[in-house]
Amino acid sequence: MATTTLPARAARRSAAARRRDRSATFAFWVLMSPMVVGLLLFTVIPIVWGLLLSFTDARSQITVGDWIGFENYQWVLGQQEFLRSLRTILVFTVFIVPLTFAVSLGLALLVDRAGWGRGIFRTAFFIPTAISYVVASLVWKLGLFNSLPYGVANLGLSNFGIDPIVWIGPGDIPWYWVVLVTVRLWLQVGFYMIIFIAGLQEIPKDLYESAFVDGGRPGWTTFRTITLPLLRNTSIAVIVLSLINAFQAFDEFYNVLGGGSFASGGNLSLARPPLVWLYQTAFGGQEYGRGSAGAFILTALIIAVTLIQGRVLGFGRSSAEK
Amino acid sequence: MATTLPGGRPAPRRGGSYWGRLRGRRVLGTVAVYAALIVLAALFLLPFYVMVRSALMTNRQITAFEWLWLPNPPQWDNLRELLDESDILIGLRNSAGIAIIQVVCQTLFAAMAGYALARIPVRGRDLVFFGLLTTLMIPSAVTFVPTYAVVSWLGGVGTLWGIIVPGLFNVFATFLFRQFYLDFPVEIEEAGRLDGAGYFRTFFGLALPNSYGIMAALGALSFIGSWNAFLWPLVIGGQDAKTVQVVLSSFLTAQTIDLAQLFMAAVVGAAPLVIIFLVLQRYIVEGVKLSGIKG
Amino acid sequence: MAKQQQAPIIGDPRLAGWRRHPLDRRAFIRTLTFAAGAVYAGSRQAQGTVAQGTTTLTQWYHQYGEAGTEDAVRRYAQEYTEANPNVEVEVNWTVGDYPTILNTALVGGQAPDLFESSPNLDWVRNGLIAPLDDLIPEDIRADFNPRELATNTIEGQLYGVKIVVDTGGIYYRPSYLEQAGLQPPTNVDELIAAATALTDGPVKGLFLGNDGGISSMQQIMPWAAGSDFITADNQVVFDNPATILAYEKLRELNQTDALLVGAPTDWFQPDSLIQGLVAMQWGGLWAMPQVTEELEDDFGFIAFPPLAGASGGPAQPTPATFLGGWSQLVNAKSPNLDAAKAYAKYLWVDNTEAQRDFNLSYGFHVPPRISVAQAAEPLQSGPPAEAVNILNQYGRSLSPLWTGAMGAALGDAVTRIVREGADATAEVTAAAETTRQELQRLLG
């Protein structure tokens, strides 16, 4: 008997383990199933379909099969306006990301220093997060930056004897950037401010004290030597998020510059980010093959930028630190 | 505590502490901080003020070349006219329904998947996780038309569910839930397991009920996203399932622009979310903090 | 050990350190309950019950701006159902970017049975739109303007029935012109001079759209210079000195201080003229009732003036306007194709009363049937008569083979010429080259 117990027990145990494995596998897939099925249907199939479309001569239809190789990709890369849209988004990003960073960090520091009324101020800066791009664009375009003399900004300027400015239009000075940048800032800095406030609160207060003892002067020095380095992870998160969002900008360009009822209308050609260009190509021009090719080129760029940025900012390292 | 020498010069460093030193500058600093805060807060609230002010004015007052601070008298008829003559109430109702279903299902599905990915050791799990993460990289513009085709093939065009269902699967939320459940104290779960509870009972009975915080946080954020979505509801919903954003945009594209009505519509369209926002602010702040976590 | 093995409950102290986001569970559940209730109330949609044996047709319109138009088309549909109880028509009044919404529906296989648009070759080749030749019998065909039929004809077959015919021109305020001692301009140089002379502080001389006329003038000015785009025998002809001069003049106009830009509404809406922001505005005939109501006698209407001195185009400089409008198309894949065609025939071929009403009772359009147009009392005198006259003499359309890709290429070229001072000759030549390639690809 004694000689048989060991293997028998092992066999029993492995049977139990297998049973446990099976039940684990079952539970795993049941819990995963809504997500997996949903993503298959509404993300994976569309991605594959889009990829196939990008190799198809698909005009006014999305049936796959009229293969034309890389012609769509060639066409997109040969389009002056597509390349220009990449430049446009680059310019936009160069403005919006540092501005978002500086303003939201500034607001966070101010709110963090306020004692009384901190909650009120935080709410005031944060509440634009609740507003949609449609509503904000409408207020910006027809209220604040209305180009007529009764626009709020123009009325304000008239107090200083400045003539009304055409904010959204083909002038020599591209004032529309003021409109586009401020609307996005207003909508998103509150969001990033909250992230920064959370980061600030995790900095141990005694660090400041010991720095002082070591000769660090409060203010700029401690901000540079303590606050910023300790906000490193938070800062990276803010930069990455705002960068990815900036790259996919569509709504404010479409609603602020667009003419309203038609894809081609209005002043969209003043500043066209890639998604607007894609939208016009695919939907306005009904060139679904070319549109898909452009979309994949854009995807490749986004992934590349994210990876390069990860390298530069030490993306992987920072998360391990925490 | 702040020691200041008679000459008004700050005490030598050794004499004061950091906080003492800070307090020395405090009066001036506090004034500056509050001045800055008040000016900035006024700037941030200005668009709201312009919105509400214009909504309660006549068109003639809005387009007047002299600035009017307050509508006098407030044109409450603008509101009545809007409610009577536009589809904004239908839009509000649809948007509320869509947002609530999306919030509940999105959060639940993400929690389920996040838990499975964090806590159930299965071969190929990392592969599944990696696959999910890749989908995060693809901008939605790529999949817009094919997704439309899939939804239309399923018969979802012109329906509320056609707007709702494709938005129920949030990979980012799944990722956050996974991070969250990775930190779930192991010994508690094991205690539950020994008690004979299976994975489902552990998840639904133990893990999920202890996830209200993160659920509320992510749910509040997804409510905002759902309420403010524009392009997809515009193309899918059409006339039969208008959301509030679609109704709002129709004011922008109408061939004759009635500015007062337009601003009133903006106020009515934005107000529910602003109120919800104020009530649920705590959860939303948590959600934002979570969304800042990166991997 | 055993006694501690029960599953931990919420609030278990062992969880305290772990729960980073402690929240009031009751408040959370209250919110959820509220949410569930709201969902229930909010998601229930009124579903119309359909009687047995009834065909339901769906019909899409873009959003016309004039008050009453939506009610009108719904009324026509109802009248049809009253006469044909087994057919119901569901009207969809589409707000927003109509072409995009329609295109998406078409490629997604969810197109309505009937929709407004203009036919194009790809739709024909892909079998998306149904030929409609049999809707217009020979004797009635003579009652339609041949040019209108031509814009709806592709490869010899008719794919659309005109619903409304639109045209445009320059609205001007005689009182403003008088004050400046000016006559309505008779050529482009006079137009530029007048616009400059009429500019006075916030009041500008001319409004061509918020983009400075880049989209509204894209075809009109070359036509005024005697140029054309794609001819009836499918030749691309716009790379000529006349087109180049036309865009250079548009640039010249944009470099004056005389153009209004940044108005709340665009050129297809008359608000800028009515509110006194400009002395002259490019606009559509459809806006004329509104302009008349607001300005009464103080407006005149002329065609876009000829670009005198232009040469090298296929024709001589001429006053210019467009022959536009919307056509009824029928979805070739509709399960109710016959019923849809029958309704299209009823509504826009046989039902002259609906045609009269829709074209004249709200905004002004020219009824597509000649007999209806000739009997149209509002179009008999004054500026409306002038507009019809201009349309009949000078109205032109783009070839049905003109595609979005061609439009984008030309539009981008004009943008660069006007805004960035790009070399007009090079830009026009390149755009024509692209257009030829696209045409080749299209006819493939």
UniProtKB/TrEMBL annotation, chain A:
<keyword id="KW-0813">Transport</keyword>
<feature type="transmembrane region" description="Helical">
    <location>
        <begin position="293"/>
        <end position="313"/>
    </location>
</feature>
<feature type="domain" description="ABC transmembrane type-1">
    <location>
        <begin position="86"/>
        <end position="309"/>
    </location>
</feature>
<keyword id="KW-0812">Transmembrane</keyword>
<protein>
    <submittedName>
        <fullName>ABC transporter, permease protein 1 (Cluster 1, maltose/g3p/polyamine/iron)</fullName>
    </submittedName>
</protein>
<feature type="transmembrane region" description="Helical">
    <location>
        <begin position="89"/>
        <end position="111"/>
    </location>
</feature>
<dbReference type="GO" id="GO:0005886">
    <property type="term" value="C:plasma membrane"/>
</dbReference>
<dbReference type="Pfam" id="PF00528">
    <property type="entry name" value="BPD_transp_1"/>
</dbReference>
<feature type="transmembrane region" description="Helical">
    <location>
        <begin position="230"/>
        <end position="250"/>
    </location>
</feature>
<dbReference type="InterPro" id="IPR051393">
    <property type="entry name" value="ABC_transporter_permease"/>
</dbReference>
<comment type="similarity">
    <text>Belongs to the binding-protein-dependent transport system permease family.</text>
</comment>
<keyword id="KW-1003">Cell membrane</keyword>
<feature type="transmembrane region" description="Helical">
    <location>
        <begin position="175"/>
        <end position="200"/>
    </location>
</feature>
<feature type="transmembrane region" description="Helical">
    <location>
        <begin position="123"/>
        <end position="140"/>
    </location>
</feature>
<dbReference type="InterPro" id="IPR000515">
    <property type="entry name" value="MetI-like"/>
</dbReference>
<keyword id="KW-1133">Transmembrane helix</keyword>
<feature type="transmembrane region" description="Helical">
    <location>
        <begin position="26"/>
        <end position="49"/>
    </location>
</feature>
<keyword id="KW-0472">Membrane</keyword>
<dbReference type="InterPro" id="IPR035906">
    <property type="entry name" value="MetI-like_sf"/>
</dbReference>
<dbReference type="GO" id="GO:0055085">
    <property type="term" value="P:transmembrane transport"/>
</dbReference>
UniProtKB/TrEMBL annotation, chain C:
<comment type="similarity">
    <text>Belongs to the bacterial solute-binding protein 1 family.</text>
</comment>
<dbReference type="GO" id="GO:1901982">
    <property type="term" value="F:maltose binding"/>
</dbReference>
<dbReference type="GO" id="GO:0015768">
    <property type="term" value="P:maltose transport"/>
</dbReference>
<dbReference type="InterPro" id="IPR006059">
    <property type="entry name" value="SBP"/>
</dbReference>
<keyword id="KW-0732">Signal</keyword>
<dbReference type="GO" id="GO:0055052">
    <property type="term" value="C:ATP-binding cassette (ABC) transporter complex, substrate-binding subunit-containing"/>
</dbReference>
<dbReference type="GO" id="GO:0042956">
    <property type="term" value="P:maltodextrin transmembrane transport"/>
</dbReference>
<protein>
    <submittedName>
        <fullName>ABC transporter, substrate-binding protein (Cluster 1, maltose/g3p/polyamine/iron)</fullName>
    </submittedName>
</protein>
<dbReference type="Pfam" id="PF01547">
    <property type="entry name" value="SBP_bac_1"/>
</dbReference>
<keyword id="KW-0813">Transport</keyword>
